[in-house]
Amino acid sequence: MAAKNDEQQTTDQQSKAVEAPDLEAGAPKHGFFVRLYTGTGAFEVIGRRKLWYTVSGLIVLACVASMILRGFTFGIDFEGGTKVSMPVNTQSGQVTTQQVEDVFSETLGTSPESVVQVGSGGSATIQIRSETLTNEQTEELRTALFDAFKPLGADGQPSKEAISDSAVSETWGGQITKKALIALVVFLVIATIYITVRYERYMALAAMATLVFDLIVTAGVYSIVGFEVTPATVIGLLTILGFSLYDTVIVFDKVEENTHGFEHTTRRTYAEHANLAVNQTFMRSINTSLISVLPIVALMVVAVWLLGVGTLMDLALVQLVGVIVGTYSSIFFATPLLVSLRERTEQVRNHTRRVMNRRQGAAARATDTDDTEAATVTAGARADATPPPDKPAPGARPSRPSRPARPSGKRDARRR
User: Fold this and answer.
1) Surface-to-core class of residue 210, CB atoms within 10 Å of its CB (0-12 exposed, 13-18 middle, 19+ buried)
2) Measuring CA to CA, which residue among 75, 57, 20, 342 is closest to residue 203?
3) Residue 391: which residues within 8 A CB-CB, separation 6 or more?
4) For the whole model, what pTM was predicted?
5) What band does 24 get if pLDDT is binned at 50, 70 and 90?
6) Which residues, at least 6 apart from 233, have a Cβ–Cβ distance to it below 8 Å?
7) What HEC string does the chain produce?
8) Using CA atoms, how far apart are residues 214 and 80, in angstroms rounded to an integer?
9) Cα–Cα distance for residue pair 287/261, rounded to 1 Å
10) What pLDDT, in 10s, does the model give residues 128-173?
11) How confident is the model at residue 379, as a pLDDT?
12) Which of 56, 70, 270, 394 is deepest in the core (most CB within 10 A)?
């Protein structure tokens, strides 16, 4: 087991060492935004997937714990009850939530579940939510509110008609909950069928796990913060699940393109191909998220400060949370999970082994070449440092070679 762990650690180190060959080979290091825009593969995502698994696991754990311990704040459409709305602007000025709550308690002898102000300016309203009231109690409350504050109608005059009320029975709330769950299940089934037909099974598993992750985290955020869950929230949740699936499909399309026929080459491992795909789709995911967030923020501004429509606020809020969660999961959860699933197959393991063996062989040959060149240089240096025996010492005066002696017979013949 220890040997296997050491081998895996060595493989991970070798894989990380070649993730960004351009940076390690002495190529110029570009700035953060240049690398982000060009998608050169300089950002390590897949190699650090254990870190992203840990972060994602902690997020899911916190969300599940909040849903179990704290629960959700369901709107009147789910739990049933009575809601009364009244303009903030009255004949005596702007009314506060505490004043409205005091009138409610004095009139009915009980406390409301919540009294909140929605919107701002002339369109702001005070919304009272309580348990289901009878028609007589509702009318008594409207009369008490009008007598106490004289709310202004559309014509600027005090009007009792400016105070509206709505009631939802618990049975209706149960039907809404059932329909919401049915819609969610139908969406997940259709999405599963599409992903299974469009991609291979490992991509389908990773995509569906990402959808579940987005669902849990988005619901957990609502539980942690205490946002009210309404039918508009469910509609928005279905919308952001579709966005999350779309963002995941974008990344998986690039992974599929990069890994097509990967087993026939030994330049990169499957994990490195996937990491390059994530880098290449970084800007597209960010741009898609920004384009989606801008109208959502605009919708929230219009809903809260201009119109005071709570339904639009609920719809925009869940979409904002979902877009952020979906962008994170498609990059840091879906693709790393896909790589972990694929690395369990024999095909990817064998290919990774061949890539590592080729790199080890290339590294060994490069090391041998460097050693040979170093030995040659050292031997040449030694040869230059030791002069040959017949070479004169530095600074010595050159000597002329002596002529060979002639035979004595030839010399006597010339004299004659």
Assistant:
1) buried
2) 342
3) none
4) 0.69
5) very low
6) 75, 222, 227, 314, 315, 317, 318
7) CHHHHHHHHHHHHHHHHCCCHHHHCCCCCCCHHHHHHHCCCCCCCHHHHHHHHHHHHHHHHHHHHHHHHCCCEECHHHHCEEEEEEECEECCEECCHHHHHHHHHHHHCCCCCEEEEECCHHHCEEEEEECCCCHHHHHHHHHHHHHHHCEECCCCCECHHHCEEEEECHHHHHHHHHHHHHHHHHHHHHHHHHHHHHCCHHHHHHHHHHHHHHHHHHHHHHHHHCCEECHHHHHHHHHHHHHHHHHHHHHHHHHHHHCCCHHHCCCCCHHHHHHHHHHHCHHHHHHHHHHHHHHHHHHHHHHHHHHCCHHHHHHHHHHHHHHHHHHHHHHHHHHHHHHHHHCCCHHHHHHHHHHHHHHHHHHHHHHHHHHHHHHHHHHHHHHHHCCCCCCCCCCCCCCCCCCCCCCHHHHHHHHC
8) 28
9) 30
10) 888 888 888 888 988 998 888 888 877 778 888 888 888 877 676 6
11) 56
12) 270
Strands 228-229 and 164-168: unpaired
Q: Let me know: does 101 contact 113? Beta carbons within 8 Å.
A: no
- Give the pLDDT mean for 377-391: 53
How far is Cα 355 from Cα 361, in angstroms, rounded to an integer? 10
How far apart (Å, rounded) are the C-alpha atoms in residues 110 and 98? 14
Strand order in the sheet with 125-130: 114-118, 125-130, 81-87, 164-168
Ramachandran region, residue 80 (left: φ > 0; alpha: ψ -120 to 50; beta: rest): left
Q: Which two tokens stand for residue 106?
A: 């004095």
Q: Which two tokens stand for residue 73?
A: 């704040």
